[in-house]
Amino acid sequence: MARIAVVAGDGIGPEVVAQARKVLDAVLPGVQATEYDLGAARWHRTGEVLPDSVLTELAGHDAILLGAVGDPTVPPGVLERGLLLKLRFAFDQYVNLRPSRLWPGVAGPLGNVKPGEVDLVVVREGTEGLYAGAGGSLHRDTPAEVATEESLNTRHGVERVIRDAFARAGRRERRKVTLVHKTNVLTHAGSLWARTFDAVAAEHPDIETEYQHVDAAAMFLVTQPQRYDVVVTDNLFGDILTDIAAAVTGGIGLAASGCINPQGAYPSMFEPVHGSAPDIAGQGIADPVAAVLSAALLLEQLGHSESAARVNAAVAAELASRAPGATLRTEEVGDRLAAHAVA
Amino acid sequence: MARIAVVAGDGIGPEVVAQARKVLDAVLPGVQATEYDLGAARWHRTGEVLPDSVLTELAGHDAILLGAVGDPTVPPGVLERGLLLKLRFAFDQYVNLRPSRLWPGVAGPLGNVKPGEVDLVVVREGTEGLYAGAGGSLHRDTPAEVATEESLNTRHGVERVIRDAFARAGRRERRKVTLVHKTNVLTHAGSLWARTFDAVAAEHPDIETEYQHVDAAAMFLVTQPQRYDVVVTDNLFGDILTDIAAAVTGGIGLAASGCINPQGAYPSMFEPVHGSAPDIAGQGIADPVAAVLSAALLLEQLGHSESAARVNAAVAAELASRAPGATLRTEEVGDRLAAHAVA
Ligand SMILES: CC(C)[C@H](C(=O)O)[C@@H](O)C(=O)O
Ligand SMILES: CC(C)[C@H](C(=O)O)[C@@H](O)C(=O)O
Questions:
Q1: Relative to the CA of B244, which of A4, A47, B148, B214 has its CA 20 to 30 Å away?
Q2: Coil, helix or strand for B224?
Q3: Residue B189 has what pLDDT?
Q4: What are phi and psi of A292, to 5 degrees?
Q5: Which residues 222-261 of B have a C-beta within 8 angstroms of A?
Q6: Residue A76 has pLDDT above 90, yes or no
Q7: What is the pLDDT confidence band of residue B326, given thresholds at 50, 70 and 90?
Q8: Starting from the edge strand earliest in sequence, which strands make up the sheet with B146-154, in order?
Q9: Which CATH number fits the domain that encloses residue A152?
Q10: Residue B330 buriedness (CB in 10 A; 0-12 / 13-18 / 19+)
């Protein structure tokens, strides 16, 4: 029986996670869920972000389902570094998986892209690059201040995520992998990524490959998002590109993500890309689709592909039936999705 | 009399620069232009990228007009680091100015954004950050390889570009500056940028300010580009965001840029954002609008605001009159723009 740790978090986090659990319970009866109180609220109450004891407990689960953490009242970096990134790094979640589909029924912002035409997945590296936390400053608050941030990239880290991208592409219809970097400026890291990509590509002659600079990819995601299948890229580029991909496919309200440790040595973590949205929290109007799609990624990762497919089908039906501009009720959407997934 | 160095460069560079010069000659008779042969062609012929003697000669000009350099046959980094970035750094061009307008007559990719609604300018830092060239690698081509890239940020460098952004906002109608960074992850550099921004903002109570993380800004440039007036950001974020801004306003075929040393201690450099486009070079079908708009930025920088306005008006008329899908001839567009600018 799957043991899931649930971090509902702040703002709309608990509201959308409740729907994701409803759907999980429906398609996988008997799943054991344990709630963990982490996020802005706990930090305000106790000053704690992620006690070691909790980290150890989380490690004992098969997966983590996260809603959203954060609040404007918490200084930048506290929860990001102390909780989200801490989990990604501690649990070696080196595949940050972010699929984007323009679902039928969803009106994207692009005039000449039709629903069904975009179906891409970004495999974002999750444990290296500028997220390593290697930086510092000198002479702070003086005219002589200097601040650095260092991007750390290893062959080990780059190769494993590129291999994952090729493996995913091999299981998809179009079998294409695009490497995105900035090799013309970041020549050291860029060269490592490009050489590693070429070496792995040589082992996969059946998979089409291309390379794009990050600025060009940002542009093409707007002008021709249809061209992408699997995109593999570094941590920061992936952060930016996946928000563009989400924007062109209907917004982060629909975007799911998984922070995955593919070998299962540690639990993987699944969360909607959206934040805690304090402005609409407590009103019961947050769209739970991103959280539910994240639960589908969780099911997939735990080997329940059929259940995952049923959840995706329920989401497809939900989105296709939405009247443009109609207000949605979080609970009702969750009920409909759970019912459809087992119908 | 203005002394301009012209680097036409490779591919479509010479074709579009010829039109920009036509327009410059029309609105500013007697401008002295000297051509410099730099780029992929010269590198292939002589192995030289930017000889010191040429750098010294360039320094003696009032401004540089650049077409495009590069070619797939040149290894990544050679011309970028050796020529483009070399000039930006050597001439301390710390303001990398990239305006984006959705011109009437231009069909952008966004369904619900109307021409005239987008008019923003990105003030991208041009001499620091990850472009500093501070990086290296160890154990290259072994499983132990590690590669680093370091982002270097100084109070000096950050403050001057933020001041420039506020000064520009003060001359615009909406008077708003958005700082874009990633303070929640890049906490050291992010804090320097945020504290400096707040300090400069305090001196400008008449200017509206906001902060956004780079991933959110990338998304909002797609979903609500209308919300931006002046955006100030670091070198790499600016590289990515300006390609998104170009994409949502009709593509890099229309995007101009200036690498500016505001004090005029060194020449500023003006260039279209697009590259050398070898695929369409030599056919006379490249759109020279981006090069001509770059010439308008050059005029503005040299104090010829009225001439710059006339060039912009000519571009507006040209774009408004284009029939959708019609093929354009580079020369003809240049002729029309030059004629209109002096009419
Ligand atoms: C909250 C932040 C640390 C995080 C990131 O930058 O990875 C977020 O933007 C994301 O994409 O999951
Ligand atoms: C060619 C490259 C070095 C350059 C950059 O990254 O700045 C280009 O992308 C640009 O935006 O001018």
A1: B148
A2: coil
A3: 98
A4: -70, -40
A5: 222-223, 236, 239-244, 246-248, 251-252
A6: no
A7: confident
A8: A129-138, A146-154, B146-154, B129-138
A9: 3.40.718.10
A10: buried
Q: Do B337 and B243 belong to one domain?
A: no
In this structure, what DSSP letter does residue B110 have? B
Contact B184, B176 (CB under 8 A): no
Do B143 and B240 reside in the same domain of the chain?
yes
The residue written with tokens 């969803």 in the block is A106
Out of A183, A185, A222, the one facing B109 most closely (by C-beta) is: A222
- Together in a domain, A12 and A152: no
Same domain, A215 and A100: yes
Look at residue B235 in the predicted model and tell me its pLDDT: 98
Residue A66 and residue A177: Cα distance in Å, rounded? 29
| Cα–Cα distance, A31 to A270 (Å, whole number) | 16
Instruction: Round the average pLDDT of chain B to a whole number and report it.
Output: 97
The mean-pLDDT minimum among A154-163, A318-327, B97-106, B273-282 falls in A318-327
In this structure, the answer to whether residues A206 and A313 fall within a common structural domain is no
- Say if residue B323's pLDDT is above 90: no
Helices (H), chain B: 13-27, 40-46, 52-59, 78-79, 86-90, 155-170, 187-202, 214-223, 235-248, 289-301, 305-321, 330-342
| CA gap A241, A220 in Å, rounded | 10
Q: How many CA atoms, within 13 angstroms, populate the side-chain half-sphere of residue B236?
A: 30
- Which ligand 2 atom is the nearest neighbour of the CA of B70? 1
Among A209, A241, A258, identify where a domain stops: A258
User: How close does chain B come to A59, measured CA to CA in Å?
Assistant: 24
Write out residues with Cβ below 6 Å of ligand 1.
A 80, 84-85, 239; B 184-185, 215
Among residues B234, B106, B134, the alpha carbon closest in space to that of B181 is found at B234
Tell me which of B231, B252, B273 is where a domain ends.
B252
What's the pLDDT score for residue A335? Answer: 98
Instruction: Please name the residue of chain A whose CA is at the shortest distance from the CA of residue B70.
Output: A184
Q: Are B104 and B115 in contact (CB under 8 A)?
A: yes
Q: Report the SS3 class of residue A301.
A: helix
Q: What is the pTM of this model?
A: 0.97
pLDDT tens, position by position, A239-250: 999 999 999 999
Q: How far apart are CA B57 and CA B51, in angstroms?
A: 10
Enumerate residues lining ligand 2, CB below 6 A. A 184-185, 215; B 80, 84-85, 239
**Mean pLDDT along residues B86-113:** 96
pLDDT at B164 over 90: yes
Overall average pLDDT of the A155-169 stretch: 98
Question: pLDDT band at B76, cuts 50/70/90?
Answer: confident
Whether B207 maps to a domain, the answer reads yes
Provide the Cα torsion B38, B40, B45, B46; round to 10°.
60
Residue B55 Cα distances to A184, B2, B31, B86, B92, angstroms: 21, 18, 21, 9, 13
Distance CA B295, CA A76 (A): 41
When divided into structural domains, chain B yields a total of: 2
Domain that holds residue A154: 96-258
Q: Give the C-alpha separation, B304 to A339, whole Å.
A: 68
Q: Do B151 and A154 touch (CB under 8 A)?
A: no
- pLDDT of residue B148 exceeding 90, the answer is yes
User: What does the pLDDT read at residue B1?
Assistant: 80
Q: What is the mean pLDDT of residues B326-332?
A: 94
